[in-house]
Queue: 2 jobs
Job 1
Amino acid sequence: MTGTTSFDLILRQARIAGGDAAPVDIGIRGGRIAAVAPNIAATAPEERLDGRLVVPGFVETHIHLDKACILDRCRTEGTLAEAIAEVAAAKRGFTEADVYARASGVLEKAILQGTTRIRTHVEIDPRIGLRSFGALQRLKRDYAWAVDLELCVFPQEGLTNDPGTEELLVEACAAGADVIGGCPYTDTDPNEQIARIFAIARRFDLDIDFHLDFDLDPARMDLDEVCRQAEAQKWGGRVAVGHVTKLSSLPAEALAAKARRLADAGVAVTVLPSTDLFLMGRGHDHDVPRGVTPAHKLLAHGVTCSLSTNNVMNPFTPFGDCSLIRMANLYANIAQAGRPAELADCLDMVTRLPAKLMNLDDYGIAVGNPADLVVLDCRDPAMAVAELAQPLFGLKRGRRSFTRRSPMLHRP
Ligand SMILES: [Zn+2]
């Protein structure tokens, strides 16, 4: 590094997840990472990180901004069927302004928690039409300074059983939807829905993200058909499935076989710990199963896995602060993943791996990538998850996008 190289900003003494233990400097120029080296010999505005951990921002593969924050309009009974019915009724009253107002509030929380890339799932059907989609398209433009937002349109209430839905999904794809989603478990003909979603994906050259296998009965799994289609259509690496709580009901050997199937077919998995814990096992009055698929065990077989928020303050999940570090900690705790390497895997499942799931090829702390950088108040990945390390500040394409003040003691 020569003394004449110029930077807009240098982050000094940063630790990088997956990198060497020794701190490095990160030089930023023109919104991109221009250098990563032990001691950058240049004069520029700088931030001293004193060995704190820097991540390229958290990545959320599965959130529902359109139906967030509607608890005041719904009952929260605690089963999946009731949650779908409650939201279906509330959805008729959604206006574009209403969706925008609620979604922007949630998006701002996510930004303040250090999230820099998001895939939001948007419901499309004849009741809501394209109102939510329109609101979120506007949101995507308005918040591009802080977060890259992908819109995944999907039929929450079924496709083949809901006339008019497929035409609206196609209309949304033609109008710029980024990803096509599905929800075979609410369809009267799950295999036909899966086939039609793959057909739309091929027509518009889109990745696919299904809501899938969302109960604890492993007898019949839509996963098998999704893997079969992913291979038949040569769509491996472009298909993700969310929830798949049925996998949590499988004994170790059967789980390992499904994991190998997922890895071979190139189908990634998103686990949604908060929702799955809240909705699964409602038929039990004691010894309630956790109902959360053990994502960290799938990693060993080569499955790409992410942990995500899913719902915020609605009948599916009457909780939520949009913190992915909290989601990683919640998952680690209930999955009994406590060894340092397992905790580091949990951080990976809210950063690097979800970026891989979304095929984001410009994500990561490497020269040439956008300077999306979030500083966590900790020294290493395992500690970040174990102690719920808080983000202190973040940059999006080199520009500071948020700051959180450290708590402070006032001694006598
Ligand atoms: Zn979902």
Note: The first helix runs from residue 80 to 91.
Job 2
Amino acid sequence: MPAPPRAEPPGLYFSHPACLEHDPRVHMPEHPDTPERLLAIERALTAVDWLGWERREAPPATEAELELVHGAGLVERIRGLARAGGGAIDADTFVGEPSFRAALHAAGGACAMTRALLAGEARVAFCGVRPSGHHAEPDRAMGFCLFNNVAVAAALATRERGARRVFVLDWDVHHGNGTAEAFRRRADVLFASIHQAGIYPGTGPLSDVGSGAGEGYTINLPVPAGSEEELWLSLLEHVVLPAAGEFAPDLVLVSAGFDAHRLDPLAGCRLETESFAELARHVRDFASRLDVPLGLVLEGGYEPTVLGECVRETLAALGAP
Ligand SMILES: [Zn+2]
């Protein structure tokens, strides 16, 4: 009897132990971006046998990959700070001795995920990596972010892997200013961000729609403090996804922050854990309709237990038949 064919895993999960070594608490003891965030995700997923997802090791990004988005000067500065034992980039962004290596694996995970998706190895994938990326601008690290993982992945897709158009959705509660800056003048990357108005980093008004050749390819949807699932889903369903459908991307990437949760200590939106599963279902159905792959990259989410549950529910929704 031939062995039965192995069931396809519902998705691919990329991470690397180096991502646990970046710890801003060395410089600021009360810093909310802790390794415990990733550990909580891993515990929540281990308890459900990783939902059948295939785990892959995130390789380090190459300098050439980083420089698809970032200036060589920024890469050198982060490397130099780490080599020198670490230091502050700004009031809440820190580099420790292991941080450069962590950031390489975070961006490299997003690149490996993108390669796997565009090679047809899976329809859905998630990068459980840190430090986060969406605040990192081409020439400036900021907001806990060193390199812009999702932007590097989108640039790799368009510049080297044959994607004509990439749609990047940012559902982190903070505006993805770094991703917006990376692609503000480009028409081959549609960037859409739903974020709480009036909080860090203060960018992303509705009126900012991109510039030059990229005008109309940036969608900023600030929402008031206290916004609940109904508003977030409505904006996704009635504004973001119709525009993304017109754009007809070859790849969908998500800056998946979970800090719009009502229990998150850094912001004031009121999503429930199940709300993220709903967001994920909408985006998954959208990608399925277009028959294009979907990759998520972890951004914020600062109550570790809640974060673990949110990621578990998100992956369950993404992988459901
Ligand atoms: Zn955030």
Note: The first helix runs from residue 36 to 46.
